[in-house]
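The aim of this short unit is practical: by the end, you should be able to scan a pair of folded records and say something sensible about each. We start with the first protein, listed as its amino acid sequence and then its structure tokens.
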Amino acid sequence: MSNAQALREFKARTFQALAHPTRVAIVEALRDGELPAGTLLDMLGIEQANLSQHLAVLKAREVLVSRKVGNQVYYAVRDPALIEVMDLLRKYFYSHLNETLGLLGEMERTRKAPRR
């Protein structure tokens, strides 16, 4: 496999890991540093089993790392570069949202314009 193909595979696996809103919420919750699973549970308001499943996917795809201290498991984003990617995706979203709002505004102005 070429380096380019390996990179495409890596990107696809990473995006697959993030292809669920709850997993995106987990990564966003960890943007400022590691948190224990209990805190994530409280922040996200989901069932413990559901959180465990999503954490397992993110760990398996090496998006998150964990460490155990006593009976607490702490999770963190493996590489802060992923937070930058998430921030870029937010900018991308708002760029498209603004474009769509502009088009809708233009359609509304056209609809309200007097006909001759």
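Turning to the second protein, read its sequence before its tokens, just as you did above.
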Amino acid sequence: MKARHHICPARVTLVLLAAGCWPNCGQAAGSLGKTLLADGWEIQSSAKIKAGGDTISTTAFKPVEWFKATVPSTVFGCLVEDKVYTDPFFGTNLRSLPGMNYPIGANFSNRPMPADSPYRVSWWYRTQFNVSPPRDGQVWLNFEGINYRANVWVNGKLVANDKEVAGAYRTYEFNITGAARAGASNVLAVEVFPPESNNLGLTWVDWNPAPPDKDMGLWRNAYVTTTGPAALGFPQVLTKVDMPALDKARLTVSAELRNAGPKPFRATLRGTIGNIEFEQPVELAALESKQVVFTPDKFPQLEISRPRLWWPSQIGPQNLYDLKLEVTVAGKISDGDVVRFGIREATSELNEQGRRVFKINGRPVLVRGGGWAPDMFLRPSAEREQQEIAYVKDMNLNAIRFEGKTESGRFLELCDQAGIMVIAGWCCCDFWEKWPQWTDADYDIATHSLRDQTRRIRNHPCVITWWYGSDNPPNERAETNYLAVLKEVHWPNSAQSSASEKPSKAGEPTGIRMTGPYEYVPPIYWYVDTHAGGAYGFITETSPGPAIPPIESLRSMLPPEHLWPIDEFWSYHCGGGPFKHLDIFTEALTKRLGAAAGVEDYARKAQLMAYDGERAMFEAYGRNKFGSTGVIQWMMNNAWPSMIWHLYDYYLRPGGGYFGAKKGCEPLHIQYSYDDRSVVIVNSYFEGFKGLRASAKIYNLDASEKFSRQASLDAAPNSSTRVLTLPAPDGLSSTYFVSLALEDSAGRTLSRNFYWLSTQAETLGEPKEGSDWYYTPTRQFADFTALGTLQPTKLKISAVSERKNQQEITHVRLENTGRALAFFVRLKVTGHRYGEEILPVLWEDNYISLLPSEKREISARYAFNPIEIGDLPVVQAEGWNTDRQSVTAPE
């Protein structure tokens, strides 16, 4: 296997601090003593061990030649981290590994493990821990996720078997008081069995390959907690906001108390929210569980005046509260928990056109987000999660969609704090949707999975809905079970039966659709299509197609000998099914921009394609609000280095798609319409703006001005306003440009936008049989080949940096000193010491164009890292018709 230098992104200091939470983020019992079982694990295949769990889970057993591991983890992820396999993400290395001989592009979840796979058998996880429960206390063992089945042993005793522990999305809590040894070393051994093709497991579908172990392992946190005789679990805060005034909120607080012992007792549950206090006594019989509820009717202090509300990003602040709960028995604290929540109401309704509109606190919100993918080996990283949420917010997006793989409480807390709405639900295209094949056990696992996941995430204000089907609504039995669970857990948000508009038996119409496209379509598509993926209603997954990374990332993921021409190595980093190649995208690139002269030219042109594709998609939905109510780009990110479906690549390198999306989702934004040539102001804020001035200019390829017009306007709150219609002047070059600007009454620029257009209209064809679900072909492409004839021009560049705490801010000043347009200029900050791009980085703007004599000032924010940066950071600038320039950025 060929090794490859691992790129480790620099730390970003735009950190969204996660709130602390006790076990399972308010789900499991025990907070007096919590031992997180994260480090010190070892794993080994059961095929290499003759002993059973009764021996392996004792101190007498001595692991020999086991692999080091941490938890959360998967078996294969541990082996990669332990250097058993080197850089499986590079080239086709993954394909060469044991257990990876399934057909390329196939959905591995629907196939059995190969007969020779080392992951066809169970694997053991083993660790040791100490525990000190209070007198008359209880000891609890918690697992937030096991994929897929497991036998659990503690100190030679079987705690649970693989009939009881089944389901990737289950959470487990076991009372191990009888097995645990206080003040001594305890041994935990978990025999994990891989998911089979008829299991409700984790799935990668056609996004990327699946790992050879199908992500078997302890893929979420494991920990031991201790309590007194009364244990506290499943706390919840339900919030109701008086609308439309928003001047009062009514809170209902609940939690479950459990007596795990043989004797009855009287407990008291106390709660505080800021300076609000409440309590009530509870009688618990032996082995009894009881839900305790505090309502504002009985506890009027839970009706709050002038509440600090939680709002999505761009709309308002993300106010959060802490609920502190404490249960006492005989005057002693027995257990407690802290839940961070937001006061808000997330609702949805069908408008007159039958399209679903999501509302926060009664205000309609245009949902603009992307589909989320964790690391393919499910290796969680708090640092990377912070970096990626910072990217989501920087792109002006306000939503993330989980299709399966619902993220951890830590991740959701980041979304709470950033104002990023979350849509959760099950995955498509595997056993989750094969209801006719389900057994009674499968129905039970699915029902328990929904109960566990919705309990786990229901207190997070960022979560706005649950889609309990995916591509299809469930059958009547499954849906009846699901709806009963949502009622049982007091699910505070809406829920839809699937991500499509297919009708279900029991639920109301979804009002959402899943009509694609997923392959390349031109910008005009989003404006003129009215029956597939165009900008109307709520679309749950869609995309303008492949997302080729910038050249530096291509060099990090492909061997030099396979960088050009495009070959099977490229295809392996595409998707599955019809997405196994780049033929459709490459044809469009060639016909629009001219054949690529090499890999660098291809990558550069691909950034241009992604920029105007993503910008057009998001702008079309913004213009048509609220005839269009939401759009989820498929996808936000990738689980491994990929050629398709991302807004930033696996190396956290933002490319053309990132900045096209950021531009298109700008909260106060001026934009051009590809269908009727109108200039539109989209205001995503919940406040209006008066005395604005919009200007539009048309330029020929030689930068000569052909048209200019201004218009004054007021932008109403949460609105879309047409202000101008551009003509088609005579004498235009085949490729020409439109420059837009929006200013306030003082002349300050609030928004700017720049388009490249063609006198050759782009027209759509009819979908071909078999491809109508994933793209609409282009009959005639726009002609931008003249961009290759742009006259060279010169940029004058200077830069300075400043340091704030551990964040570096580099300010770049650009000036086009030539007579030609400086087109699509890309900026990078590199480390002086190694010359590599500093990542992640938050650019104010990028891939910009400057008219002759135009000046721009743009800043970049990134983490200060003296090892990477050296003495001074370096700014690089390069455009289509400008030479590459570098300049140091002194402080």
